[in-house]
UniProtKB/TrEMBL annotation:
It comes from the Bacteria. Keywords: NADP, Oxidoreductase. Belongs to the short-chain dehydrogenases/reductases (SDR) family. The lineage of its organism: Bacteria, Pseudomonadati, Pseudomonadota, Gammaproteobacteria, Cellvibrionales. InterPro entries: NAD(P)-bd_dom_sf (IPR036291), Sc_DH/Rdtase_CS (IPR020904), SDR_fam (IPR002347), Sec_Metab_Biosynth_SDR (IPR052178). SUPFAM superfamilies: NAD(P)-binding Rossmann-fold domains (SSF51735). It comes from Spongiibacter thalassae. This is SDR family oxidoreductase.
Amino acid sequence: MIADALAEAGARVYVASRSADDSSGHIGIPCDLSSDSGLDELVAQFERREEKLHILVNNAGSFAAGPLEDVGCEEWDSIMALNLRTPFMLVQMLLPLMISAGDAEDPARVINIGSIAGIMGGSNMAYAYGASKAGLHQLTRTLASDLSAQHITVNAIAPGYFPSDMTEGFFAAQPGLQQTIVEATPRGRLGSGEDVGGFCIYLCSRAGAFVSGQITALDGGFLLK
């Protein structure tokens, strides 16, 4: 959704993905962002093609939920690594390209994709996932504090419920859950590509050039209930 919106707005979009399929109109770079070698490969391939990076969207992540007593160390560590460590390492590794891209009027942008699971107080038994997203929100603030003066803004979007492979999985596992969530959302629907894509375009446009260090719940009012 985000890649499509940015491309339609005129950006040349690279997507770190499981394959090099470019049929979507984006440039695919196949790599495993949960590994150091995958991070190195992504950065090396991007540096061979571009001298500047104007927008970095940290969206790769994994999800798991279950009873507290069933959470294992391997599951916890893998979720924390991909959801929290990877975004930090990508900012660190790509920082020179973003510094080259940004200026006082048009800074480079980092958009971290958090989650309302890192904000809401109730339990959905997604222990590592919720903690990793809360950590990503705080990482957004600290990076913004350090990088804004270098003409790089850092913000986070905390989505509510959007159609995705992840939500389809737990909607299928819990019949009736989707309708329950829709009814609990004041806007009365799931999020759409226009919602998240439009918000990213705002953050990346001149209108968002003075915004940094913010975590915005994009949830149709779900957290208000």
